[in-house]
DNA sequence: CCGAATTGTTTTAAGCCTAAAATGTTTTCC
DNA sequence: GGAAAACATTTTAGGCTTAAAACAATTCGG
């Protein structure tokens, strides 16, 4: 007891396991993300960020503000500005200034945007299912639980640094 | 039995759980990655891709070829070219053409590069530990196991598409 | 009411990233 | 030996991404 405490204080802590876990988490995400990116490009000639943005809007029939999107997608504001610009240009998004607050831009999927997204999303879902095919329902539940815990832990840590 | 089979064939399969799992995985990675990126920038004024590349090289005292790096980091060849260019420029990397195969470029950390990386890596490890702090050792083991299974599943799925 | 802080968005500058084509080198195999 | 295939890297063109600064509109507190 005294020994282990002494040791913990005197020697630098060993966090190799957590480091390995992080690298494995990153590998999984990169692998799946790359696969999805490639399939979206080949099948639908669309980029992953565009798809992701449309996915957010599909869940919000009344539209979202740019900051909403930025927070949900966890990307910078400026990033959203450019992404939206291109999607409005291609006719997938409708963008208007809020009537009540002239700072705010509200964006929505157009009819075309929604139709195209739904078509892509249906296929996208089967890709994801296939990528996770070797996980049992129990594995999936367990991963969900552990990742929820991970997310909470990371958010807490981030909040500690930037309160 | 017949019922469930009939149902499976006639109605589109439901993969909502896998989709949620994928989104949660992505959220965790994005969250942690963003946190690490910010800390690297603030503490050491270095970008995450530069750090990642140096991490690969630190594990390979005899150097690596650009393709090795590209495969390990799971990024495109052209990406590595640019990244290496900047790191050679800043004196962190040494780059030379292989004596036995003039197609190949071998890169290594310079003395400066290694020293700076070690300094950053030590602190980096504590950040990761902190981000995963609320996970018990058992959680970590279990996550490692499930992510290994996930990685294998995704690789298999990717190989099915692109054999 | 009015100046100060806050909020929402855009701009800027730099770097990251990809896919595909191009270039140069080595290996394969007839 | 020499053409063809394979390999390693670079180039190209375009898009994504960030952090920080700038701009615009609203809200807050005295």
TrEMBL record, chains A, B:
Task: Extract the Pfam families matched here.
Answer: MarR_2
**InterPro entries from the entry?**
HTH_MarR-typ, MarR/SlyA-like, Tscrpt_reg_MarR-type_CS, WH-like_DNA-bd_sf, WH_DNA-bd_sf
Q: Which SUPFAM superfamilies match?
A: Winged helix' DNA-binding domain (SSF46785)
In what residue span(s) does the HTH marR-type domain sit?
A: 18-152
Alphabetized, the UniProt keywords read:
DNA-binding, Transcription, Transcription regulation
Q: Which Gene3D superfamilies match?
A: Winged helix-like DNA-binding domain superfamily/Winged helix DNA-binding domain
The UniProt entry, under PANTHER family, shows: MARR-FAMILY TRANSCRIPTIONAL REGULATOR (PTHR33164:SF57), TRANSCRIPTIONAL REGULATOR, MARR FAMILY (PTHR33164)
Q: What name is this protein filed under?
A: MarR family transcriptional regulator
Recorded source organism is Bradyrhizobium agreste
Taxonomy, top ranks, is:
Bacteria, Pseudomonadati, Pseudomonadota, Alphaproteobacteria, Hyphomicrobiales
């Amino acid at each position: 007891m005294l020994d282990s405490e002494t040791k913990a204080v005197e020697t630098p802590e060993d966090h190799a396991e957590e480091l390995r876990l992080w690298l494995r988490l990153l590998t999984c995400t990169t692998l799946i993300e790359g696969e999805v990116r490639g399939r979206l490009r080949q099948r639908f000639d669309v980029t992953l960020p565009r798809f992701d943005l449309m996915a957010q809007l599909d869940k919000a029939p009344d539209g979202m503000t740019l900051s909403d999107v930025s927070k949900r997608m966890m990307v910078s504001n400026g990033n959203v500005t450019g992404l939206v610009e291109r999607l409005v240009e291609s006719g997938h998004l409708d963008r208007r200034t809020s009537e009540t607050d002239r700072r705010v831009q509200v964006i929505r999927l157009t009819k075309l945007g929604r139709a195209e997204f739904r078509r892509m999303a249906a296929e996208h879902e089967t890709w994801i299912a296939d990528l996770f095919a070797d996980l049992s329902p129990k594995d999936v539940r367990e991963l969900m639980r552990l990742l929820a815990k991970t997310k909470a832990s990371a958010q807490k840590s981030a909040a500690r640094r930037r309160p």
